[in-house]
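Anyone up for a design puzzle?
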């Protein structure tokens, strides 16, 4: 029997899966990784549809890819949970150092109640250490996940060509989200203050010392965003794409948001990271997310410094800058829609499991459940009461 007829009744999930806007190198590398019989993290299912299994009470039933998908997903979720616990442990170390050597500060967080100048000041050394720990928070778990799964670099560092204009527009749209998000944070801070809960204003180390400000900028506006996107939109999101793009975007966004351990900051981070995941897939490049994240952090850094230094007319300057960003973004978005084929839809959401089953399997994974419980306790303990 020839190969053409054979393909009519053979199912090879790993080889047949399509990935939106990805290069041939990406598809080949991902398919090869998933098809490796020694790789328990790759979802593979090869089956002759003419074969059936006998089940008491049901008779002969076809083999199902859903079982193979669930097994692979549980393996990935289990490893992810372990990596997230490691991330939490690094943050505990960060928290310990801050409480030991700077007990009167709030680490790298500046809360709304501190925008009048009550935020902590650090020297160059402490700022450098905090920057290193914040970077390690993402680098160490990401390396663990990548080394164990052996996910190829061509998949992690996905970089399809031909979407440069879309990437430029994505950066501008991300800056608008930051502007809108700042307004949303102000509103949420007022709501949470009614129940005496302080909200996070920004995540940077602020200082009047230009050297400290430069070190803080280098770490929290450049290095940390790069590390965070490589891990979440590179390693994690790309691995979980085999279980559906929408699921991968949603899981990485929620997990990323919870990693800041603050309920007042959670909606803002989840919205931002979901958009980062969406544009990563729509442009086929993790470098889109990296550039979006860097520009967003720089924008937030500059606007926050303007307000925290409280120069004359600081609020007016912030409003003017935000207005310019929104105006430019509207022009850029109009050009984006003129491309004709642009939509925010995910075209290929391949999965043999329903979304509810995937979410339930994710939450039910032991290491994920332990991490979620630890996160809830951490959020409660770290809540800042005013």
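Challenge accepted. My sequence:
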């Amino acid at each position: 029997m020839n190969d053409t007829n054979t393909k009519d009744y053979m199912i090879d999930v790993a080889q047949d899966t399509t990935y939106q806007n990805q290069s041939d190198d990406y598809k080949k590398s991902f398919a090869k990784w998933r098809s490796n019989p020694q790789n328990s993290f790759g979802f593979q299912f090869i089956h002759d549809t003419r074969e059936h299994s006998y089940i008491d009470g049901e008779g002969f039933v076809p083999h199902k890819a859903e079982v193979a998908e669930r097994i692979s997903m549980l393996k990935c979720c289990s490893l992810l949970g372990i990596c997230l616990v490691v991330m939490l442990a690094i943050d505990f170390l960060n928290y310990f150092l801050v409480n030991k050597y700077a007990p009167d500060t709030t680490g790298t967080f500046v809360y709304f109640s501190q925008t009048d100048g009550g935020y902590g000041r650090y020297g160059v050394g402490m700022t450098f250490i905090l920057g290193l720990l914040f970077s390690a928070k993402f680098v160490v778990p990401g390396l663990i996940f990548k080394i164990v799964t052996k996910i190829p670099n061509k998949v992690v560092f996905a970089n399809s060509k031909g979407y440069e204009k879309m990437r430029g527009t994505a950066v501008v749209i991300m800056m608008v989200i930051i502007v809108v998000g700042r307004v949303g944070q102000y509103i949420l801070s007022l709501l949470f203050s009614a129940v005496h809960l302080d909200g996070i204003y920004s995540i940077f180390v602020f200082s009047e010392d230009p050297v400290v400000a430069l070190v803080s900028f280098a770490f929290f506006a450049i290095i940390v965003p790069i590390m965070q996107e490589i891990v979440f939109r590179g390693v994690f999101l790309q691995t979980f794409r085999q279980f559906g793009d929408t699921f991968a975007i949603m899981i990485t966004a929620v997990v990323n948001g919870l990693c800041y351990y603050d309920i007042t900051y959670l909606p803002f981070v989840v919205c931002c990271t979901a958009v980062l995941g969406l544009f990563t897939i729509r442009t086929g490049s993790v470098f889109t997310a990296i550039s979006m994240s860097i520009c967003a952090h720089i924008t937030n850094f500059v606007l926050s410094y303007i307000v925290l230094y409280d120069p004359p007319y600081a609020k007016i300057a912030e409003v003017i800058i935000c207005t310019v960003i929104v105006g430019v973004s509207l022009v850029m978005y109009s050009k984006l829609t003129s491309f004709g084929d642009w939509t925010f839809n995910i075209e290929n959401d391949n999965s043999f499991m329903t979304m509810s089953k995937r979410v339930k399997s994710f939450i039910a994974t032991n290491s994920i459940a332990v991490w979620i419980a630890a996160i809830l306790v951490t959020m409660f303990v770290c809540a800042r009461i005013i």
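A detail worth pointing out: Confidence is low (pLDDT under 50) at residues 1-6.
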